[in-house]
Structure formats: structure tokens, C-alpha cells
Amino acid sequence: MPIGQALQIAADEGLDLVEMNANNNPPITKIMDFGKFKYEQKKRANEAKKNQKRTELKEVWVKPFIEANDLNIKMKKVFEFLEDGDKVKISVMTKGNKRVLAQGREAVPELFAKIIETVGEKGALESRSKPEERTKSIVISPVKQAK
Length: 147
Description:
By secondary structure, the protein is an alpha+beta fold. The chain folds into two domains: 3-50, Translation initiation factor 3 (IF-3), N-terminal domain (Ubiquitin-like (UB roll)), CATH 3.10.20.80; 57-142, 2-Layer Sandwich (Translation Initiation Factor IF3), CATH 3.30.110.10. It is 45% helix and 24% strand. The protein has helices at 3-13, 34-50, 68-83, 98-119; strands spanning 16-21, 28-32, 57-62, 87-92, 123-128, 136-142. The chain is rod-shaped and about 85 Å long.
């Protein structure tokens, strides 16, 4: 059907002639209400965006010589974040004089091992900080449960 005739039909019906694919020979066109089409497209895009789960990175700070009860309280928060589907970055504060920093170097790996053991199957170790970084940290990501 020639374009002029298609335009006349669309105008008679109070609709628009929309070019769907300009690369074809002849171009593919469709008679439709273009405003309604754009509205429905936007509505579908918003619905798809609403159903997406964005993973956030939550951070928990601990000290290298943390007591067992304090660590348990921090781990409760870590478990809450993992259950919500968020990644958790556990950072260790290392500050103080040289003696404290030297003792902290041995304490931090032990602390991280204890934390990873406590997390168990609820999370997986994703990354560690580099050895030369001043603030030591690990990132734990949630493990997806089979339904």
C-alpha cells in the first residue's frame, strides 16, 4: 500500500502512521495511537525496573582486638544484610602506635578467619583488601538459596 494511502487511512481513523523499521524496502509502517503506544512502553519499563533487586554494599567496622560478644553483635548485623541480599564489607580499624599496629597485623587475619567461619554457608568471601592497604577489609556476598 502506498504511503499516501496509508496516511489517509490513519487520518480518517484518528490514528498515527508509525514507521516501525525504516531499513526494509519498502519501510514497515503501522497504524496506531502513538501516544498510547509510548505510554504503555514507559509503563512496562517502570514495571520491569520495579521488579529488579539492586544489590547494595553495606559496611561494618570492627577493631582488631574485638571481644567475642561485641563481634557477635556485629555478626548479627552482617547476617541481616546478607539475608536482604546485600554484599557486606567488613573493615578493620588499624590505628595507634607502632606496637598496637604490629600486634594488629597478626590479629587481623585471625579475625577475618573467625568471621568467615562464623558466616559459613550464608555468605561467600568475594574479595580481600591488598596487603599494602592501611585499612584491611573483606567483602562477603550472599549465597543464593535454592528454592
